[in-house]
Design a protein that fits this description.
The chain is built from 1 helix and 11 strands; from the N terminus they run H-E-E-E-E-E-E-E-E-E-E-E. By secondary structure, the chain is mainly β. It has one domain. Strands 2, 3, 4, 5, 6, 7, 8, 9 and 10 form a 9-stranded antiparallel sheet that branches. Strands 1-11 form a two-stranded antiparallel sheet. It starts with a helix and ends with a strand.
């Protein structure tokens, strides 16, 4: 249990203290689908530097069940040609299986916003530290697409 608390504290510090210079979308609400583990619907809410995503999805592993998650995200970019935007964050997961589960998520992903169309495509890998009913590690991975409603703007 001590190791899991140390990992959680490190993840919180990394998200809070990492400076990121980015060219990223800064406004709007995106709705779409996420395919992988789990598969379902997704939404992302972007207001300036505050980004939140939620997934309502079906997990197909072991004890197939509804899985809900919510994450706070930070964005950045890799200095490559072409530019590769990325994001990382910290969140919570609740899985409604025969034995319900609660865990801490640390999503890391690559995404692309289309300048002329209000779409985002993304892929993410998400280490999960399950804390209820027992402590264990899991891994989720998915790809998805979101359509954005509302104001869309870009920042450097």
């Amino acid at each position: 249990m001590r190791l899991s608390r140390l990992i959680l504290a490190g993840a919180v510090l990394a998200v809070a203290l990492t400076p990121v210079g980015a060219r990223a979308q800064t406004g709007g609400t995106g709705l779409g689908i996420v395919l992988g583990e789990p598969t379902g619907v997704t939404a992302r809410f972007m207001r300036g530097g505050n980004n939140f995503q939620v997934h309502g999805a079906w997990s197909f592993t072991d004890d197939a069940a509804l899985q809900l998650s919510g994450d706070y995200l930070r964005s950045g970019r890799l200095d490559t040609e072409p530019m590769m935007p990325f994001y990382f964050g910290l969140g919570v997961l609740v899985k409604f299986a025969s034995e319900s589960q609660v865990g801490i998520r640390v999503p890391v992903g690559l995404n692309h916003f289309f300048k002329s169309d209000p779409f985002e495509i993304f892929g993410e890998v998400v280490p999960v530290l399950q804390v209820i009913p027992k402590t264990e590690f899991d891994l989720n991975a998915a790809v998805g697409v979101r359509y954005y409603f509302g104001a869309m703007s870009w920042r450097q």
